[in-house]
Write a structure and sequence with these properties.
Elements lengths: L10 E4 L7 H14 L8 E6 L5 H14 L3 E7 L2 H10 L4 E5 L8 E7 L8 H12 L15 E3 L3 H11 L11 E5 L8 H8 L3 E5 L18 H9 L4 E5 L6 E4 L5 E2 L1 H14 L7 E5 L4 H9 L3 E5 L3 H11 L3 E3 L5 E3 L8 H15 L3 H5 L7 E7 L9 H16 L3 E6 L5 E7 L3 H18 L2
Parallel strand pairs: 2-3, 2-4, 3-6, 7-8, 7-9, 12-13
Antiparallel strand pairs: 1-5, 4-5, 9-10, 10-11, 14-15, 16-18, 17-18
Helix pairs in contact: 1-2, 1-4, 5-6, 13-14
Length: 449
């Protein structure tokens, strides 16, 4: 087992391959439990999962690990990731864990850990947990009389449903709106339709029949063809797609045009600004956000701060400096007035609130700017040090120089969850964009030895 097991968003891997084997999962739980012991009280951890078959392996391994170091465990079953964050605070828990690989296919799974404040762990704490995993001893385990206990919390979905509904303006309903909701065969397959129906919408659910293997498969926020088709065919006012753990959202307007996270951020930022509710007139995004968003916000006198890729970095910047809106192009939207992490359903309700107030088609209110042409390609690498290769560095320098002259941007980074190099560039010259990306991918292939 390598010492580096945490990536951009917790731990993620193909199931039954390191670091996602049962034995390593047990050690992760033990080390994490020891990390968060902070007094003599009975310590408590909340564990939720999405709909992957492998959740039945990961959940008991985590439970065994936490109880072996004296932590009590509350199991809530299939629930969205942001529900874990909410339940930690509601139950005064010491810790929360979401078992999910988010938008990845069913053969993958992952572990997302939240601290007592309901926020994802910073890099420094993850590093301390990794060190503990490498140095676990039998003496770290409690005696039999002090073992933790585990129980299920049957009303957890209801608690989260009421929390989410409370973020929708009082006195307002969704009556008269026909909404397509794509649940990605994931964690929100029951909760999301229930919330929208209870608020009065006429709903059509798709991606709501999980079988353990079909999470994110041709559905959800990363595969929107079914959503767009359903919106147009059913003459719906809007479509909402969540991902496997429901912490991100992608929208389709009534014409079947996709509205990504950047456009959602633009719409919400402008609304909050008009209501004098946009803290410090600032939004937080990542290096992946389209430069078109930045241009739009600048024209509206809204400052945009970029962080490294990952919603936890956006959240950290927001809470550090008191900003209340941030997110990622991929659809993680953080509204810190209501929660401490990305929440697809919560963001969806705020978008629907805009739709109700405007009395206009979704296409009129959600397409705020024309994106600058942007191209992203992934390269699956074999050599972990590929980006340190001299020829690769020279190639990147050449590409940056060309894009700089075209007033564009280049971003090359390793994925934090897969053995991929992500190559993203943007500029107004589409032909130049394609040429630069192709040259970089070719260079990576030629030097990946």
């Amino acid at each position: 087992m390598t010492n580096k097991i945490f990536g951009t968003d917790g731990i993620r891997s193909t199931v039954n391959k390191e670091p996602l084997t049962a034995s390593t999962i047990l050690k992760v739980a033990q080390a994490t439990g020891l990390q968060f012991m902070r007094g003599d009280h009975r310590h408590l951890v909340v564990i939720a999962k999405d709909t992957r078959l492998s959740g039945y392996m990961v959940e008991p391994a985590l439970t065994a690990g936490f109880t072996s170091v004296g932590m009590d465990v509350i199991l809530v079953g299939p629930m969205p990731t942001p529900a874990v964050s909410m339940l930690i605070r509601s139950l005064r828990a010491d810790l929360g864990v979401m078992i999910s690989a988010s938008h990845n296919p069913a053969e993958d799974n992952g572990i997302k850990i939240f601290g007592p404040d309901g926020r994802k762990l910073p890099d420094s704490i993850e590093k301390e947990i990794e060190n503990k995993i490498s140095n676990l001893e039998e003496s770290d385990l409690v005696n039999p009389a002090n073992l933790g206990r585990a129980r299920r919390l049957d009303d957890a979905p209801g608690r989260y449903i009421e929390h989410i509904k409370s973020t929708f303006p009082k006195g307002k309903t969704l009556q008269g709106l026909k909404i397509i909701i794509d649940c990605a065969n994931g964690a929100a397959y029951k909760i999301a339709p229930t919330v929208l129906w209870e608020l009065g919408a006429d709903i059509i659910s798709i991606g709501d029949d999980p079988d353990g293997h079909n999470i994110n498969k041709n559905c959800g926020a990363t595969a929107t063809e079914a959503l767009k088709r359903s919106v147009v065919d059913n003459k719906a006012h809007i479509g909402i797609a969540l991902d496997g753990d429901a912490d991100r959202i992608i929208v389709s307007d009534e014409k079947g045009n996709i509205v990504d996270g950047d456009q959602i951020i633009a719409s919400l930022a402008r609304y909050l600004q008009k209501e004098n509710k946009l803290n410090k007139n600032t939004v937080v995004t990542t290096q992946m956000s389209n430069i078109g968003l930045e241009h739009y916000l600048t024209k509206k006198n809204i400052k945009m701060i970029r962080t490294q890729v990952g919603d936890r970095y956006v959240t950290a910047e927001m809470f550090k400096n008191g900003y209340n809106l941030g997110g990622e192009q991929s659809g993680h939207i953080i509204l810190s007035d209501y929660g401490t992490t990305g929440d697809g359903l919560l963001a969806g309700l705020q978008v629907l609130s805009l739709l109700v107030d405007s009395n206009k088609p979704a296409s009129d209110i959600l397409q705020k700017f024309n994106p600058v042409p942007q191209l992203l390609k992934n390269y699956r690498f074999k050599n972990i040090n590929l980006l340190e290769n001299t020829s690769v560095k020279d190639c990147m320098d050449t590409a940056e120089e060309k894009l700089s002259k075209a007033k564009g941007r280049l971003l090359i980074r390793k994925s934090g969850t897969e053995p991929l190099v992500r190559v993203m560039a943007e500029c107004e010259d589409s032909e130049l964009l394609i040429s630069i990306i192709d040259d970089i991918i070719l260079c990576l292939k030629e030097n990946d030895t």
